[in-house]
Amino acid sequence: MSETIDHVSDTAFWVAYYRWMETQRPDALFHDPLAGKLVGDRGEKLARHMGIQRAMAWSMALRTYTIDRYILEAIEGGVDCVVNLGAGLDTRPYRLDLKPNFPWIEVDFPHMIDFKTDALKGETPVCRLERIACDLSQDAAREDLLKALNMRGQSILVLTEGVVPYLTNAAVAELARNLNEQSHVTYWLSDYFSPLFNQVSARGKMMRQLAKNAPFQFNPGEAPDDWPRFFADLGWQIDQVRFLGEIGRDLGRDLPANWFIRMFMRFAKEEHLRPYRRMNGYVLLKKGHEIVAINT
């Protein structure tokens, strides 16, 4: 298998490697032992090739932790089905505290579904797991699938972890419309990247590597309200937003930096650090048209 990102689905091996690395820490925020089984040695090779390993380890650990919390809280609040679009090598149906009859549906490219099903054939999920092969870039197939999935629960949470950034603005808009049309889809959990993140990351090695075959494309604008306005215009307003930098600070996992930057952070005022702590995170969307400001 290639040691480079040749297709957007290859990013699943890259990020799963960092879940495996986090699992081995004595102070791990979560335990994902199946991640190691899924990535083999390919994940480490991809991580070396893509670079910024320290920052990625920090980000992926907090991303996973944050989404775990969101999902469990949503289920406690009444969500009765999770649909994971672009599920990749996610293993939450095997490791979260879920009831045996809770429906969890994973959707991804056919080759990813086949790989994952074969790799985990000896493992038992903790809930009622179903995998569906579908190329979500195909409009008719996506629309038909979402209509069918709408009947699987009364209050459905849709997760698009690490999916939206790779889509064009037009593709995100179509997905938003499709999800909004489903009467039982009540929440949508998705990535958030601030304009500052886009400016800073554009100069980095990781983005240059991704640009070859899996570029970040979604960018609703550079003004602070462009992100919430984009989704509100399509019927999705912010219910909650959680920033990885702030969660990391609260957990004793502050922003990764060299010694000089760490020294600066010790004495910097919080308002100077806030834009960096709030560069990326996860947003829980609900149906509505209100533009809820993201204060970065």
TrEMBL record:
Pfam families hit by this protein: LCM
Swiss-Prot/TrEMBL keywords: Methyltransferase, S-adenosyl-L-methionine, Transferase
Gene3D superfamilies: Vaccinia Virus protein VP39
Gene Ontology MF terms: methyltransferase activity
EC number: 2.1.1.-
SUPFAM superfamilies: S-adenosyl-L-methionine-dependent methyltransferases
Family designation: Belongs to the UPF0677 family.
Protein purpose: Exhibits S-adenosyl-L-methionine-dependent methyltransferase activity.
Protein name: S-adenosyl-L-methionine-dependent methyltransferase
Native organism taxonomy: Bacteria, Pseudomonadati, Pseudomonadota, Alphaproteobacteria, Caulobacterales
